[in-house]
Amino acid sequence: MKKIVTLGSFMMAVSICCMMLAAVTYGQTSFPPDSVVKQRCGACHKPDEQGRLEVLEETRKSPEEWKAVIIRMRRLNSAPVEDAEFDAAVKELSGNLCLTPAEMARVAYYNSDENSQHREIPKDDLETRIYTACVRCHTFGKIASHRMTPAQWGENRNLHLGYYPTVVGQMREMDWAKESESLIEPVAKLFPFDTPEWKKWMKTRKDQDLTGQWRIAGYQPAMGYYEGTCSFKANPGKGADEYIVERDIRYEGGTAMKMKGQATLYGEYHLRYEIAPTPLTGRIEGVFDLDADKMTFSGKWWTVIQDSNAYGNEKFCKADEMPRIIGLFPQSLKSGLEQKLTLIGAGLPGEIAEPDIQFSDSNVKVKKIVTMDHSKIVCMVEVGEVPNGTLTMKVKDIAYENPVTVFDKIDGIKIFPPIGRARVRSGAAYPPQGVQFVARAVNFGPDGKPDTTDDMFLEQVDAEWGLEEESTREKDDDLKYLDAPVTNGLYTPVTTYGPIEERHQRREGIGLIAINASCTLEGKTFKSRALLAVTVPDFITHIK
């Protein structure tokens, strides 16, 4: 039987198909028509057959990397993103094409901008290949901050050949073009764009409201432990997920600071803030990631001018959420002594007795509760005959997540970092970057030997500091030009990036020296030594 199609039915079918196509096209992109990304980035990144903006929606990155991309697009490709639209573009990209919290945790060390002393070390053969081919110029953290389709990993490799063809000559000990091409497939599997974990997280993540009071616990090298509060208030003038933040902290040594600034929440879990200078600090920035199940942020802050290399590792939790303990000072206890212990948290029991604080070894007992409220408990702890190692601790049913170290004696001290990197200054735009060294007590563990895997690193100790030559060549004169005061473990270069006329070959004020620390503990004098590399300014920070 022959079917007859009328003009009306044909036009209706066409209309339905067009509507279906339009729905599919719109549904495939994460960016609505009025978004900054669609309006500005879409000028070059056209929709593909599925409606996705080409290149953009084939990659996921951290907010820090999306920011770097927009800066590069504006600088090299004249991307039409105005200054007033910059932050909105970063937030849109970070909200829709972000890393999961688990992926971000792997590169958390990379997202802070202090003079980091973190050392990247490859974990397997594949990472060793990546380090050899890529980490000469970039950090591994930068690479791991991207999740791309195989096609985009390939395009990224081609971009390097097109924009930076000198890489072939610079990497002349290998066939870089061939090696980079062979890495595309394994890197795409190591850092894939599309994963079940990402889809699940995007589907289940919740909108966050940070307004309210938060409890802080942290540690700053050289300054020690601190605790306090911070509050978040909506900053509607800047848009959604924008906040005014106020911090009030106090160190165990008595120093107190009040600070105020602005914060932005990216992707409902990644927080960055900028704090205005105070009489004791310069401008501060911080980056923290949220554990939404516990409403607790973990991360780091640092002073923008890094001559003092000041930074702090910190947690803060919402005061009116679930009970939890976020800090314990100190984190190591000596057996055979009664000592003070401070617990910081939120929602803690207002009234407790000594037996309510329990350790996994019954020979560690709370003898007296000095003060207590819903956010802080100070108590005296007696440590009996307990084997060296770690214990767990809880207040009633509220467990502290980190281990508590117990030790019987101090066997030595060790300087951290074991090798520090400072940078000389080069005019006002490139101030010097110092290194904050810390000496920590050490128990050598069951084998009684230093520098083995069973060593237990204990609390920071007060030490005397000095510099010495690290002889690496004949007539090594580095110390002559790098010598500078070391106050409480802080070394800041005093030389500049420029030739020194009287120095051999008119070399700059850079080189390799050693730093030493000594202190007397329990009637014994301990010493430690570490290396200090003083190098040139970081002129191209964006490449990291």
Give a nutshell description of this structure.
By secondary structure, the protein is α+β, with helices and mostly antiparallel strands. The protein is 23% helix and 35% strand.
Level of helix content? 10-25%
Record field, number of beta strands: 28
**Portion in beta strands:** 25-35%
User: How big is the Rg?
Assistant: 28 Å
Uncertain segments: 1-27
Helical/strand content category: alpha+beta
Major beta sheet, strand line-up = 3-4-5-6-7-8-9-10
CA(first)-CA(last) distance: 71 Å
Structure description:
With 544 residues, the protein is of the alpha+beta class. 23% of the residues lie in helices and 35% in strands. It has twelve helices and 28 strands. The strands form seven sheets. It has an eight-stranded antiparallel β-barrel. Strand 9 (296-303) and strand 10 (311-318) form a beta hairpin. 32% of the residues are buried.
Topology, please?
Elements: H1 7-28, H2 36-40, E1 59-61, H3 63-77, H4 83-96, H5 101-106, H6 125-134, H7 140-144, E2 146-148, H8 150-163, H9 166-170, H10 176-190, H11 196-204, E3 212-220, E4 224-234, E5 242-251, E6 256-266, E7 270-275, E8 284-291, E9 296-303, E10 311-318, E11 324-329, E12 332-334, E13 338-346, E14 357-359, E15 364-372, E16 376-383, E17 389-395, E18 398-407, E19 412-416, E20 419-423, E21 435-436, E22 438-443, E23 456-460, E24 464-469, H12 478-482, E25 486-487, E26 490-491, E27 511-521, E28 524-535
Parallel strand pairs: 12-18, 20-28
Antiparallel strand pairs: 1-2, 3-4, 3-10, 4-5, 5-6, 6-7, 7-8, 8-9, 9-10, 11-13, 13-16, 14-17, 15-16, 17-18, 19-22, 21-26, 22-23, 24-27, 25-26, 27-28
Helix pairs in contact: 3-4, 6-10, 8-10
